[in-house]
Amino acid sequence: MNRKDFIQRASALGLGVFFLPSFITGCSEEDDIPTFNVNFDGDVLIIGAGAAGITAGYALQQYGINFQILEASGVVGGRMKAIDNFADFPIDLGAEWIHTNPNVLAKLINDESINTDIGIINYKPESLQVWKNDELKKRNFYTNFYGEYKFKNTTWFSYFNDFFVPQIQSNIQLDTVIRSVDYSGERVLVTDQNGNEYTADRLIITVPVTVMQDGDITFNPPLPTNKTQAFSRINMPDGIKVFIEFSEKFYPDMMFDGPLFEALSDTEGEKIYYDAAFRKDSNRNILGLFSVGEPSSQYARITDDNELIQFILNELDERFDGTPSRTYIQHVTQNWSQEPFIRGSYTHNGEVEDYETMAASVNNKLFFAGETYHTENTATVHGAAQTAYAAVEELLLNRA
Ligand SMILES: Cc1cc2nc3c(=O)[nH]c(=O)nc-3n(C[C@H](O)[C@H](O)[C@H](O)COP(=O)(O)OP(=O)(O)OC[C@H]3O[C@@H](n4cnc5c(N)ncnc54)[C@H](O)[C@@H]3O)c2cc1C
């Protein structure tokens, strides 16, 4: 469940404009990682080393199955990315909030011998403002109804990089752009950009929906028509994050555009300015801008970094009487729409049936995992990881 889903569900249940924190903290027994009997002793290829690909490899490792992860870019993490040299705390350039009960972190590691005592911030902003009719207005009472979680000293990226990646590092091959998948024979044959071939009994595909839509990977035989049609109906719009350091803290803990409920429930996207140092051990003033979907396109289309920061500073100057430009120190931007193997933020507004169709395995050879393939927890890291466990379970049960 992502931030939008919380609001929409709360509204549907008649809870009014805002939702209660208990909604967010709900982590059901269904989120537990199941145990099952393995009925498979072959090998597996995984395309993509984001949250889903890493988790799929980690889960296969736990069951002693041979696997190899083939990742197009030069780094692991996909839409999780962090920098630790910008401020005095690490910064998430991609996924940042934990949109569920943080006990999901231990559940995903799924190994009681590992110490999963990870510092968490109860992310409940205390000061909140909305920019409406060219005026900044305080809306602090709304904060009584809003709460999520964040990492205190680490990031989503480091959570995976510290707990999962070391155990599977030697099975990850970077800079390997998969161009074709042939699953017509006994074994699946996968070919990369240099013509190198890889074979395995099963394949788990974790690439973003944009990659499937744009035909980066050709399939022989072609994927079922209902699957390709479902892919084409899903929208994965722009997404951007910007962090700006100032010498003064002139901004609230969180700032939205327009009437708050409209801003939060706008199905076309989100735009939030927020104090990125909130409840971190930091004396630095770091303002974050998170925007996805329609509101983000005004930023995402600016490819020149100087032009982009000037655009944002102008917007902030209007709200804070020029203080932002006067106190600006440095910034860092992450435009996810420009990432060649991502090309957007995350899936928006899809029908449950389409998510199910996209996620369905094909011929007991091709399996799908990632945020694109979760019917409930789309657009989240934990959802992507949960689909990986589900795909691995289906693969290892080998029911076909
Ligand atoms: C701006 C932004 C903010 C977000 N904020 C949050 C948040 O606060 N909390 C949260 O839970 N989630 C958040 N998310 C969503 C979260 O990041 C994603 O849901 C999750 O990381 C997706 O993981 P994945 O494994 O499904 O896909 P990805 O992370 O996209 O991984 C797919 C991998 O496949 C690789 N690949 C693509 N094509 C090929 C190819 N041809 N061959 C080989 N490899 C290929 C890619 O390089 C990539 O590494 C955010 C996302 C964005 C963009």
Topology of this protein?
Elements: H1 3-12, H2 21-25, E1 43-47, H3 51-62, E2 66-70, E3 82-83, E4 91-92, E5 97-98, H4 104-109, E6 120-123, E7 128-132, E8 135-138, E9 148-151, H5 156-163, H6 165-168, E10 172-173, E11 178-182, E12 188-192, E13 197-200, E14 202-205, H7 209-213, E15 218-220, H8 225-233, E16 239-246, E17 254-257, H9 260-265, E18 269-275, E19 285-293, H10 297-300, H11 305-319, H12 323-327, E20 328-335, H13 352-359, E21 366-368, H14 381-397
The structure holds flavin-adenine dinucleotide.
Give an overview of the whole structure:
The protein has helices spanning 3-12, 21-25, 51-62, 104-109, 156-163, 165-168, 209-213, 225-233, 260-265, 297-300, 305-319, 323-327, 352-359, 381-397; strands at residues 43-47, 66-70, 82-83, 91-92, 97-98, 120-123, 128-132, 135-138, 148-151, 172-173, 178-182, 188-192, 197-200, 202-205, 218-220, 239-246, 254-257, 269-275, 285-293, 328-335, 366-368. Helix 3 runs parallel beside helix 14 (381-397) and helix 8 (225-233) packs across helix 13 (352-359). The model is unreliable at 6-27 (pLDDT under 50). It has 14 helices and 21 strands. Strand 3 (82-83) and strand 4 form a beta hairpin. It is 28% helix and 24% strand. A 7-stranded mixed beta sheet has the order 8-7-17-18-19-16-20. It has a 5-stranded parallel beta sheet with strand order 10-2-1-14-21, covered by helices on one side. The protein is an alpha/beta fold. The protein has a domain at 32-79 and 107-117 and 155-234 and 347-400: FAD/NAD(P)-binding domain, CATH 3.50.50. The protein binds flavin-adenine dinucleotide. The site of flavin-adenine dinucleotide (FAD) has 42 residues, from helix 3, strand 16 and helix 14.
